[in-house]
Amino acid sequence: MMKSFRPALIFWFFAISYCLIWAILCVVFQRNFRSDILPQYFLGDQWVLGCGIHPMISAWYLNLIRFLTFDSEIAPYLTTESCVLIMLWCIWQLAREYLKDEKLALLAVLAAANFRYLNIGNLVYNHNTALTVCWVPAILCLYWALTQNRLRMWILTGFWLGLGFHGKYTIALLVFTMLVFMFIDPQARKYWKTPRPYITILVAIFIFLPHLIWLFNHDFFPIFYALNKIKQQLIWYQRLIIPAKFFFGLILVLIPSALTLVPITGWIWQLKFRHDLGMLPEDRFRLAFLGTMIGIPIALHLVAGLLGTAQMNSYVMALGMYVPVLFIYVLKIRLDSKSFYRTAILGLLIAVGTMTIWAGALTYSAQFGKKPAVSQFPGKKLAETVERLWIERYAPTPCPFVTEVNRYWLSGNVNVYGKLHIPVHLENFTLRSSNQEMNQRGGMILWDRNNFPEIDFSAIQQTYPRAEQLPSLEIPYEKPFSPKFLPERIGVAVIPPSPEP
């Protein structure tokens, strides 16, 4: 190996380049934001502490990046990739601690970068991103707190956990995991006799306190929403299918990471530690720590699946981040120069191949798909058309609200891409306006006639008695999608603004 080999410099070059390339690709190949990004915009503008489903730190962070980038369309992708950069740095740091070899740590980072939720699975900026970018540093800071016993690491652990509660409430699973480890591990348990773990708890509570107050003021609406999702009437075999799909889905998204490491691990894995007797105390502690941080949350998710929690694939993101570090730590490896370079080349090929396949799938979906991807939706044209309808009728009176029947996809596009940025109303989601208020003040009502042709305007009038139906809109796709696919058919109604008193 060359003496000029500088792993730290290579890490920063790779991590920054990797994140910037993904951000640029998203702008080039996606004409429209995905649905999860939209509420981060229209709620972020209001600087709210929560909505009907989640806390809103994700929207705050996006708003900050929007300000720094002059509200450029790359803002949500830079927001996501800045989170990825933080997570890659944490993986790099923990890998250096565990593997005691910066070359191996580089390979761990490369393998982690090929984990699905650090590439194509992380392009939709949402609450899961906000959760994971707090989850990953919290684990690193707790490890440093337990091994170095520095006060700032105990404080930082509390900081990331408290911030995580502003991202998504499932950070509670990590808190539970950390508490279990702190009680069962002898080295960690001794710290309960010192003030430092209690400082961590106080810091976390202090940071979470504003949202906790908000929850009290809003009758714990998001908590009850989450509990109602669990209360499903399922047949017994369905309760087995959900955790099975979750577990095999986790394995599936980790396959690219495992393939990256094949040149140093081989196709048939052999454990480095065959029995506990040959392990040093520090090895035993490291294995117990990382095994607990990964294993207990996975077990808790499996239990949640048995209880009937559906759509668990969204919870996979945080669980696999440190798995490549654990792989390299527990498996016998060969790290001669040839194997190192083979692993690096294979990992880069997988990364570039993932980018190429993703971009190609979006580019040629017009030729092979039945419908364009949502990232090709004509949101700008829809926003322009809806705003023009209001201006032609009621200018200069501003439009108080735009709403959508049961969703926020169309209304979110109008808010994000329109020049007027009309506030979105969805009573049990935004929690800042009511149907009665909208009926009194006026606004625009939209519904998707392609996917929901059964929606009847008379049912809309039961909620908004002053609503007046307008002719449906036909919003064409841009080229190359427009020749093949029919326009989007949008139902539209208007509630005239209240007369001035």
Rg of Cα set: 25 Å
Give the N-to-C terminal Cα separation: 81 Å
Helix-strand string: HHHHHHHHHHHHHHHHHHEHEHHEHEE
Q: Which structural class is indicated by helix and strand composition?
A: mainly alpha
Give the overall shape, derived from the CA principal axes: globular
* Count of beta strands: 5
How much helicity do the residues have? 55-70%
Summarize the main sheet: 5 strands, mixed
Tell me the domain tally.
2
Question: Poorly predicted ranges (pLDDT <50, ≥5 residues)?
Answer: none
Strand order of the largest sheet: 2-1-3-5-4
Number of helices: 22
Mean pLDDT: 89
Strand content: 5-15%
Give a description of the structure:
There is one protein chain. The protein is mainly α and 501 residues long. The chain has 2 domains: 7-362, no CATH class; 377-495, no CATH class. 60% of the residues lie in helices and 5% in strands. It is built from 22 helices and 5 strands. The longest helix is centred in the C-terminal third of the chain and has 27 residues, at 337-363.
Gist?
This protein is mainly alpha-helical and about 500 residues long.
Describe the protein's topology.
Layout: H1 7-29, H2 38-42, H3 57-68, H4 75-99, H5 102-113, H6 127-148, H7 151-165, H8 171-184, H9 186-189, H10 196-217, H11 221-230, H12 236-260, H13 262-265, H14 281-306, H15 323-330, H16 337-363, H17 365-368, H18 379-394, E1 402-404, H19 409-417, E2 424-425, H20 427-430, H21 435-441, E3 443-448, H22 457-463, E4 468-475, E5 488-495
Parallel strand pairs: 1-2, 1-3
Antiparallel strand pairs: 3-5, 4-5
